[in-house]
């Protein structure tokens, strides 16, 4: 925590400097509010318009959490399956890479045609956004298992299941959490994109209404809300990672004794 507080003032100082420069430039050049509002105007709108977008925030958070949970489970399951079955990995790994070359925004209309305007196409979009970084990170982590320890466990007669859960899985956890953090930030973006498919609530809906009525200050409020949610989600996962890995190390030392 002390390290974060000690180093955190640098990016915070840069952000404050950018906001001050933005404020000065906007007022100096008299840029119209509908084109580019200054930060103080955006902050005023964020405070006064809380009643307008509060329900949208909670809707986006709920959709994000559900989609992220499903995407994480699927991503980890696919990674474990491909790792344990090399034949499937050789067959499907290139397809995983190719699947990421299709823009999500292009798939959105097709998902509406196939599954309607309910929650299912929205969850599919979030899952598609989340599962790939988790799968790739988990696979890379599982491949980085210490070869000497792996050879030693095989010599002691450990089964494949014991090797996986006692050695390969713990070694992969840092990489898995890296994938979870990346997917956590992507999940908010995926939720906002999915809300453009005809949802009645959500930050994406709020942003659409604001842009169509040329309320640029509200568009910026939505953008900042998305950034705050993404950073908050990332920070929560990072804290869970720190606690979990610390607990695992302490548990491992205790078992060794």
Describe this structure in words.
The protein is mainly α. It has a single domain (54-256), classed as MetI-like (MetI-like fold, Orthogonal Bundle). It is built from ten helices and no strands. It has helices at 2-28, 39-48, 50-84, 86-99, 104-115, 119-143, 147-155, 160-194, 203-212, 216-256. Mean pLDDT is 86; it is low at 253-257.
Write the layout of secondary structure elements.
Blueprint: H1 2-28, H2 39-48, H3 50-84, H4 86-99, H5 104-115, H6 119-143, H7 147-155, H8 160-194, H9 203-212, H10 216-256
Helix pairs in contact: 2-10, 3-4, 3-6, 3-8, 3-9, 5-6, 6-8, 8-10, 9-10
Concise overview:
By secondary structure, the chain is mainly α.
Features:
257 residues; MetI-like fold; 85% helix; 0% strand; disordered C terminus
- Tally of structural domains: 1
Strand/helix succession: HHHHHHHHHH
Shape: elongated
* Count of beta strands: 0
How much is the radius of gyration in Å?
23 Å
> Strand-residue fraction?
under 5%
CATH class: Mainly Alpha
The helix fraction, in percent, is over 70%
Count of helix runs: 10
CATH homologous superfamily grouping: MetI-like
Which whole number gives the mean pLDDT? 86
CATH architecture descriptor: Orthogonal Bundle
């Amino acid at each position: 925590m002390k390290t974060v507080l000690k180093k955190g003032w640098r990016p915070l100082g840069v952000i404050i400097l950018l906001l001050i420069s933005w404020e000065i430039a906007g007022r100096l050049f008299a840029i119209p509010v509908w084109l580019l509002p200054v930060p103080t105007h955006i902050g005023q709108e964020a405070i006064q318009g809380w009643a307008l977008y509060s329900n949208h925030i909670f809707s986006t958070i709920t959709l994000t959490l559900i989609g992220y949970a499903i995407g994480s489970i699927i991503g980890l399951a696919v990674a474990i399956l491909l790792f344990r079955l090399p034949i499937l990995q050789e067959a499907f790994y290139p397809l995983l890479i190719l699947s990421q070359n299709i823009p999500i925004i292009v798939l959105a209309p097709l998902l509406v045609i196939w599954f309607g305007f309910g929650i299912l196409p929205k969850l599919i979009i979030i899952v598609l956004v989340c599962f790939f970084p988790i799968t790739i990170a988990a696979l890379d982590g599982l491949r980085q298992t210490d070869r000497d320890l792996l050879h030693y466990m095989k010599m002691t007669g450990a089964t494949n299941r014991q090797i996986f859960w006692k050695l390969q899985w713990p070694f992969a956890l840092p990489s898995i959490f890296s994938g979870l953090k990346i997917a956590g930030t992507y999940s908010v973006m995926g939720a906002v994109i999915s809300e453009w498919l005809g949802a009645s609530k959500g930050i994406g809906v709020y942003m659409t209404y604001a842009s169509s009525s040329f309320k640029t200050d509200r568009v910026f409020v939505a953008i900042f809300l998305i950034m705050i949610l993404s950073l908050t989600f990332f920070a929560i996962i990072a804290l869970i990672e720190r606690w979990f890995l610390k607990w695992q190390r302490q548990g491992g030392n205790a078992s060794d004794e």
